[in-house]
Amino acid sequence: MNVIECNQLSKAYGKFDALNLLSFRIEENKITGLIGRNGAGKTTLLKIIAGYLKKSSGELRVFSEDPFNNLKLSANTIFVDDDMNFPPALTIRQLLQAAGTFYQNWDMDLALRLFDYFEFNPNQKHDNLSKGKRSTFNMIVGLAARCPITIFDEPTTGMDAAVRKDFYRALLKDYLAHPRTIILSSHLLNEMVEILEDILLIKNGEKYFQMSIADVKEFAIGISGQKQIVNEWITGKEILYKKSYTLGNTYVVVRNDLSEAELESAKRKGLEISPVAADDLCIYLTGDTKGGIDDVFDRG
Amino acid sequence: MILHGDGAKPIYIQIKEWLETEILSGKIKADQKIYSQYQLAEMYNINPATAAKGLNILAEETILYKKRGLGMFVSNEAREIILMKRKNTTLKNLVRDLVGEAKRLEVSEPALIEMIKIANSEEENK
């Protein structure tokens, strides 16, 4: 069953198109990673799904309903980001209590266990938490709410490496025990790639692809070796990325639609074949310009 | 087993190979229940769909069989299939790589065979 159906969705801020004719579906109880460069439209999309923003045109259905101004959906959706607003008068311990009255599936026991584990002071105010602590607190609320639609927008901002690891582990464990539809956005794909089932990659407000994580990892292949041999071998193939190294070596990323025979021929010619990591691939695919940062400094 | 992230083999292949090794070593025997996708997800911190992919390949290769509502079990011929497969593909590829490297290092065929013999007797004397 699809819990999110999105057809030709667009969102404009004045003359700027943040989202442009975006169409995709998200199935129930899958963990999807929303990936894209800064400014690709990730947050805009998530806020429309969560009902915080109004779309400009197109169709968006969450549990078959329009999420904007929809009280029923807002009780079943949680959107976690850096700017979560909480009443400033309450302590963080009181905030947990308040969240429990709003979210039907709220697990107070889990919230308190995480609260203790991450060593929160119950009398502190949300505004006074450090950046990393605030992200951690918001994450606790996001997990304990157990909403059928759980959205994390850049959840690990400010968290240190250990807390980040704990967060993804906690998310996975709670998901295994209580499956639900989860969308995670991050530009750090690497840290969360293993817990995802699908990836939705957007570029300049448009969908680039949506596929399973296994397919993403097999989408492309890296070829490296002597420049001349590489160039000969890649003629007629779709090149996704290319980088020259010293001593006449080249690394090229191509679509992995190659036959066994082609791969064998590459190996026999002394070319090295390597898989392309999912996060590298996403960077290559969403690059606006051919080439990379080196070209900026390369003034000939 | 420690899973290797990007760069190495796909995770579902690593899961599948780890399960094969568990079966080969006799830790999980014929007609015993194998770990579920959720157990594997929890053990290795991966999405259960990834674990399921590894399990399903083993089922396709008839190393595992499904019992409806009960999960997956190790088949009677599992060990045999894994042994054959490892000999015919894994070992063959290793030998191919070995021969290739020997050639690059200008090690002659008799010298390479001699090296294999030495390694073999060392292994047997362990």
What descriptive keywords fit this protein?
heterodimer; A: 300 residues; alpha/beta; six-stranded mixed β-sheet; four-stranded antiparallel β-sheet; 12 helices; B: 62% helix; 6% strand
Textual characterization of the structure:
Chain A is 35% helix and 29% strand. Chain A is built from twelve helices and 13 strands. In chain A, helix 4 runs antiparallel to helix 5. The longest helix of chain A has 17 residues. In chain A, 36% of the residues are buried. Chain B is mostly helical and 126 residues long. Chain B folds into two domains: 66 residues, Arc Repressor Mutant, subunit A (Orthogonal Bundle); 46 residues. Chain B has a two-stranded antiparallel ribbon. In chain B, a hairpin with a 3-residue loop joins strand 1 and strand 2. The chains are: A alpha/beta (300), B mainly alpha (126).
Number of helical stretches of at least 4 residues of chain A: 12
Structural class of chain A: alpha/beta
Give the CATH superfamily of the largest domain in chain B. Winged helix-like DNA-binding domain superfamily/Winged helix DNA-binding domain
Sheet with most strands of chain B: 2 strands, antiparallel
Helix fraction of chain B, binned, reads 55-70%
State the helix count of chain B: 5
Report the count of strand segments of chain B: 2
